[in-house]
Specification:
The structure is a single chain. The chain is an alpha/beta fold and about 180 residues long. The chain contains five helices and seven strands. Strand 1, helix 3 and strand 2 form a beta-alpha-beta unit.
């Protein structure tokens, strides 16, 4: 009976700890004025790449780059790719994934809040944001991006920006 109690209380403690970790991650995301980590599917990435401009000298940034999968996909297609992420665990994962793919010379991850980053150098921006950041992000992109830049948003559209194309839940805009 005592063993069952200790087992049950241990499982309860682990469960509570996991819930607290999730709450902390979400709270940190809100405090940093960013979005929680939402994984982009391989299917969405496969749909994304043919929709992007290609050519030598192009630079792209993934805002909230998570585990680096979009940065890696961009780099594999010849684009100089940069990712901005605030979660140190995801940054470590990203850098390892980039190294494993042999793309260190084409892909870079920054431990930086993208709200403070200068994004004017990029030809393409990708983002998997959430509703509460989109209006503010739209203003930042409109202000800082150069004319002709491509913006790709997964799942969440910009409401005041004229939509160029839509492919399922991928929204494409031009500056």
């Amino acid at each position: 009976m005592l063993n069952a109690f200790f087992l049950w209380s241990s499982l309860l403690a682990v469960g509570i700890a996991m819930i607290m970790n999730v709450i902390n991650i979400i709270a940190l995301s809100y405090m940093a004025k960013g979005a929680p980590y939402l994984e982009t599917t391989e299917k969405d990435i496969e749909r994304l790449i043919p929709l992007l401009p290609t050519g030598s000298g192009l630079k792209a940034a993934d805002i909230g780059s998570g585990d680096g999968r979009i940065v890696i996909a961009l780099a594999k297609h010849g684009i100089e790719a940069h990712g901005y992420e605030i979660n140190p665990l995801l940054i470590k994962t990203s850098k390892k994934n980039i190294q494993d793919a042999g793309l260190e010379n084409r892909a870079t991850i920054y431990w930086q809040n993208f709200w403070k980053a200068d994004i004017s150098q990029y030809d393409t921006i990708t983002v998997f944001g959430v509703g509460f950041i989109m209006k503010r992000l739209e203003k930042k992109l409109q202000k800082e991006l150069k004319p002709g830049a491509t913006i790709v948003s997964f799942r969440f559209p910009f409401h005041a920006w004229p939509l160029q194309e839509k492919h399922e839940a991928i929204y494409i805009y031009k500056k």
